[in-house]
Amino acid sequence: MQKTKTLCRLLLFFLMVCLLSGCWDREELEDKAYVIGLGLDRSKDKDKIKITMLLANPEVGSMQGGGGSTEKPREIITFDANDFIAAKATANSIISRNISYELLRIFVVSEEFARDSSFSTAFTDVLKDKEIRLNSYIAVSKEKASQYFMNNKPRMETRPHKYFQFMVSHGIENGLIPDSNLFRYFQTAERGSDLFLAMYTTAKRQKDPEIKREDEYTAGELNATGELDDTQFIGSAVFKSGVMFATLTGQETRTINILDDTTDIKDILVNIPDPFSDNKKQFAARIMKTENNKIKMNLKGITPKIFITIPLQIEIMSNPSMVNFAKQKNQHIIKKHIANHFEKGNIKLLKKTQTELKGIPYPLPVYSKKYFATIQEYKKFNWVKAYPRADIHVKVDIKMVDYGNRTRNAKRLGE
Amino acid sequence: MKQQSAKIGVREYVSIAVLMVGTKATEDTPANLYSHVQNAAWMIPLLSAGFFFIPLYLLIKTMSLYEGKDLFSVIKKILGKYLGFMVCLVIFIINSFAVSFDTRTYTNIIRSFYFTTTPTLIIYAILMFICAYGAKKGLQHIGSVSYLIVFYAVVSLYVALWLGTKHANINSMFPLWGSGAFVLVKEGAQKVTIFADFFLLTMVLPYLKSNKAFKKGTWFSYIYICIQISMSILIFVCMFDESLGGTAYPFHTLIRYISLGQYIPNVEIIFFIIWIMAAFIRFTAFLYINALMFGNLFKIKDFEYLIPSLATIYLMLGFIPEAPINVSLQFKPIIWSTVGPMFAGISILLWLVALIRGEFKHAKNKNTM
């Protein structure tokens, strides 16, 4: 009796071991080809799209490889397909392994396709695929996405998944590109009251770009020379109901990122015109935003009034006109000047969104929800129509963290 | 085996209740509530808890007249042999449907998020097999296992929600009244189904150490669960905003979205394992209670042997809907809108009949004598 019981139990355990492999979903790492970036272009055929897959080679850079592998870190294929879900099967006629979107990091859409009205419907397929995560990013490339991936040859970070992860997350921390993941894309599309910003990128440098201030560029305009990769992530593409229609520069994107509490910007380094100098010198400062904005609204009447207070912490990093900040008066001047500078920048940008873009570039309507009792009232207010005539006041609250080290200019000879 | 005589304590009872009812926030309930009342969905659990409090209180009061008797015995005693039998049968049948569609929902979640190519039948069969095995072990085993994992289940839920709040905006919870206060109250009354499981839990009363433990455990878990569900839904609303309506299983979308820093980006599997253990316990307890009901109805003493066959029947029932969308749009709404109000009605009916028949006075007289 005891023996049969033990035997039965043993058999049960063996049965359970079979289940552990995951039944039909058994996956072999060896057998997978992971797509890191997916490029979307318009195809010559009207109903189709052109798909570019950037596949990472997991053997490169891993410890087990020991650096002995001479394989390339990536593989790129481009072909026409109906959508990117069934394209996985088509791609298998070229790629030997099983294609998986499990580790997909970034969607790169060509500007041409993003501006096409068919884009939003083609892109909704993202939600249907179970492997695609909503935290993957969407970027718009100036050129064709297929060319973008071909031209993008990082020198140091050759493993594509690391390259895109670092590039994007540091761009977001600096505020030069928006935090444009799929989750936010669909959230904005569902809300239908504001515009969506996607990061703007290119792998092609412009010829003879003009020199501007440190953050006024859009992708491709920064004139960097040397031994480098031509890819640039700066600025943003503006989407209205899922279709792109405008671009913003890096500076404008940064201003919006400071206005938008839902993105994670870290400390930002900027140049600010120096109030103490006559010949348009600028000083460097570090901006930190640790608190959320305070937003007050008065939505009664024809012109809605919006009051935004932005708390910023400033650390002055350079002092080109050698001002003595130990004096109370100078501290006061610089504080006021910085506040003024940011207020002007914000007002200018918001005016632009009201007149040119005719839409709100970040989820501001969400903050108005508490002024309504029911959804019906909120819907009736209709932000899309009300925003262009809104009266927006921006106030910047400056807290000085540090006025910088006290240094003196080197004395000139004979002085 | 002397399982019949073994009893469970308050902590086991509370953990079973928390796992049975508390997991509701992690399936399609939030999306369901959101589709009716939009961003005020988080208020529904609180309102429903308020509405269901009265019937539950009356039921427990009535039950306390009959020390150590379970729900079905009390129903039969109060309503008589024939009427009582009919009422019990209806409860059993409705509960059977509820269990089969609930298990199907969980199968759908597992299939659509984690095991995408495995046939539904296989996942479903494995789920039912494990639950049947657990249920056959008896209530004491269920109790100790749930006490073992309840801590992990609750902590992992809170960790997931806390990571979710980083992407949430508290302003999304407004406008406060959603689509109107009247709609809110109406939905709140209808959605008492969330707490209907407490009605069923009165079946296990004889297996508890004392009546007092039962009362204490019920009220404690009732209040705790109502807060937990409400809070989870609030966080889902704040995070997903208006896209919650299109997100069938927000908890699973959330755990696929969040990450533990840059180094550990994809963490859903940690939460999934704990969640699925909680799900096993949930249906194990359900199966056990259903078997208990069946045994009580047809006077079968060793009802534990019924569990495998009951599980098979539920599997077949749950397999009737063709696709996940049919489950959540055709079959579940019927269960959703009937179970809660009906159980509330039965509780009030029991109390009324007991009052009219003067059972409360009898009990008082007995006590004074």
TrEMBL record, chain A:
Residues 25-199 form the Spore germination protein N-terminal domain. Residues 1-26 form the signal peptide. It is found in: Membrane. InterPro entries: GerAC_N, Spore_GerAC-like, Spore_GerAC-like_C, Spore_GerAC_C_sf. This is Ger(X)C family germination protein. One of its GO terms (cellular component) is membrane. Keywords: Germination, Lipoprotein, Membrane, Palmitate, Signal. Residues 235-404 form the Spore germination GerAC-like C-terminal domain. The lineage of its organism: Bacteria, Bacillati, Bacillota, Bacilli, Bacillales. GO terms for biological process: spore germination. The keyword Membrane applies.
From TrEMBL, chain B:
Pfam families: Spore_permease. The keyword Hydrolase does not apply. GO terms for cellular component: membrane. It is a multi-pass membrane protein. The keyword Transmembrane helix applies. InterPro entries: Spore_GerAB (IPR004761). It comes from the Bacteria. Keywords: Germination, Membrane, Transmembrane, Transmembrane helix, Transport. Its main location: membrane. One of its GO terms (biological process) is spore germination. Signal peptide: none annotated. It is found in: Membrane. The chain crosses the membrane at residues 40-60, 81-101, 113-133, 145-164, 192-208, 220-240, 269-291, 303-321, 333-356. Belongs to the amino acid-polyamine-organocation (APC) superfamily. Spore germination protein (SGP) (TC 2.A.3.9) family. This is Spore germination protein (Amino acid permease). It comes from Neobacillus niacini.
